[in-house]
Amino acid sequence: MNSALPSPDDMFLLGGELPVRRLGYGTAQLTGPGYWGPRGDRADAVAVLRAAVDAGVTLIDTADNYGPELAEELVAEALHPYREEVVIATKGGVVRTGDSAWHVAGRPEELRAMCEASLRRLRTDRIDLYQLHRLDPRVPMDEQLGALEGLRQEGKIRYIGLDTLTAEQLEQALSLTGIVSVQNRFHLLDRASDAVLKMCEAHGLAFLPWFPLANGALTGDTAAALDAVADGHGATRGQIALAWLLHRSPVLCPTPGTGSAVHLAENLGARDIRLTTEDMSRLEALAPA
What we know:
This protein is of the alpha/beta class. The chain has helices at residues 42-54, 70-79, 108-122, 141-153, 167-176, 194-203, 220-233, 237-248, 261-268, 277-284; strands spanning 11-14, 18-21, 25-26, 59-61, 87-92, 94-98, 101-104, 127-132, 157-163, 181-183, 206-207. Helix 1 packs across helix 2 (70-79) and helix 3 runs parallel beside helix 4 (141-153).
């Protein structure tokens, strides 16, 4: 029987207490290729950020190395002073020296300095969600998380999140300090982090899937299957890919990015799509064997 699924919950309680709308906005696309330098006119970037919040987005996801520094500066320029309902998430732990040069930097003194710099750029006394962008294999995890816990106890960050880790690493991290979110790659064509997702569900953690639109891979046979579902809803492929995430798990909080107001409106339209059991079966089958 092909029946409409229940409407997915629009809200998630970050840390069990801070409400955010599950479909957020990511700032990476406000920077140039390789997340390096500017992309287009600064005023346009500011306008898109403001449009996102005006359209009801409450979770803004950024990082100190997008630009680098530029994305955080744009967030502050567009949105400061922040509305009460807006939650700013940023990341530290990676240093950029070029458009294809990423260097993990997880020593406690490095993480503290990066967090302090983000506070200044974002023009805030406390970052709502500070995410370790990558675990540094050269530094014990307890030292990296200990630095973030120290910043949390000082009131400089409210919550701690992690980016790109295995289920085993998440289990270890949870034994060391309070974690409220994970950000791993996860989309229609990549379910490699399904074990991490299940752990997030079990522990009530937000899962912010990066590349939620599959980074341009929704083509070929995948596109045909998506079109079959999209046509039934008067939607686009991207909207269906986002709607699938919202239906797939109540902890998934995708933050697709764009520098276009038109594309922003399209992405946010995914909130209104109600997939059916048949839709979900077709979409679930798209994952590579």
